[in-house]
Fold this protein.
Amino acid sequence: MTEAGHALRSMADSALDRTVVPGYSRVGYALRSRLWRGAEGPNDDPDLDDGALAGAVVAVTGANSGIGKAASTQLAGLGAQVVMLVRDTNKGAAARDEVLRAHPQADVRVERCDVSDFDDVRSAARRLRTALPKLDALVHNAGVLPASRGESAQGHETTLATHVLGPIVLTDEVRPLLARAERPRVVFVSSGGMYTQKLHVEDPEYRRGRYRGATAYARTKRMQVALLPCLAERWSGDEVTVAAMHPGWVDTPGVARSLPGFHRLAGAILRSPDQGADTVTWLVATGRELSGGLFWHDRAPRPQHYLPGTCYSADERDALWRYVRSAVQA
Ligand SMILES: NC(=O)c1ccc[n+]([C@@H]2O[C@H](COP(=O)([O-])OP(=O)(O)OC[C@H]3O[C@@H](n4cnc5c(N)ncnc54)[C@H](OP(=O)(O)O)[C@@H]3O)[C@@H](O)[C@H]2O)c1
């Protein structure tokens, strides 16, 4: 492709990012996937050939539904051994059967792991350390948008425990496995909803003011992205690349259940779970060198702020990080 072609591609891609509705919908995915696949057509992405993940081991949390199940299927299709981490093993077994129907030769196992519960996370990690030779990638996909404020087994607000604290404990606990991989990667499935929020350093557990599940969700998705540099440093000894991404608006059981109005209204333009999972799979599988600490969407790094008032200082981020570090201490 010529230089002018690259420039046009990049302009079209950025324009989609700033026009939220088309960009996040299936329209955005359809347009972008043409751009990134280049002039040779849909099969010319050398990163994602069949077998791109042969010999790799990948674990996905919240793997029994929606984007997590789609990502597990795609990863298995690329040859990875997939560990589906789920809080309900019956649902997990049914999801595993679906993955195996798509890829009968795949190596797929189900492990119980409620990511919001540090004890459950630690016992899941113990089993993984015994069963697996290494871990090439860990995908923090499990997510919740609760109707009312709840707390985890250790007394942390549910979205904070599920999106931030539990994933850090899990990653800490499987570090010996990540350390044995050639290019270990940790991927957080965040959300475009994080663009609406700043860091609420003074109230990370959302104890003050009227609790709204959608706000708690977006605040903790913002935390995932804001803490990327701290997490990259925490796991840098093992050369772990840490990334966050957002999948766009995706038609999943979670959206239908938690946001029924939005689901009804946007139904026709929502992405499929496969489309939503595409960048997760790409971040795990791409042979390209990835810079750590970035926020991705549709296979490209994206800005971390669009709205005035959501920026925070390094001091605020460090204060949140101090809170998080003390909360996840064993
Ligand atoms: N769909 C979208 O438009 C959209 C947009 C932006 C970001 N996301 C993010 O994408 C991720 C997947 O969401 P989805 O839309 O695919 O929703 P989903 O269909 O509800 O899937 C969420 C998964 O997370 C699991 N989960 C929730 N809490 C858990 C816990 N404590 N421990 C272990 N697993 C837990 C759920 O398990 P159960 O089945 O047992 O409940 C389920 O498997 C989430 O992080 C979400 O925030 C989605």
In short: Residues 61-62, 64-68, 87-88, 91, 114-116, 141-144, 162, 189, 191, 246-247, 249-250, 252-255 surround NAP (CB under 6 Å). Confidence is low (pLDDT under 50) at residues 39-44.
